[in-house]
Specification:
three-stranded antiparallel beta sheet, alpha+beta
């Protein structure tokens, strides 16, 4: 595994209307989804496609990776 999925995940989140709310602990960020009306955590360095898909699922977006 080489690269991080984080830039692709953030791009998808923004395309679906999600917004950055605030920094979390360490390299994590708190985002808000207008689809699910919930806050969720995005890691600053997502290495696993399973984790990337889990973040998208929490945002109400279907699997992408």
């Amino acid at each position: 595994m080489g690269s991080s999925f984080t830039p692709q995940v953030k791009k998808l989140l923004l395309a679906h209307g999600c917004r950055f709310e605030r920094p979390g602990k360490g390299d994590h960020e708190i985002w808000f989804s207008p689809i699910t009306q919930r806050r969720f955590v995005v890691d600053g360095d997502i290495k696993s496609r399973h984790t990337a898909n889990a973040v998208l699922r929490q945002a109400g977006i279907g699997k992408q990776f």
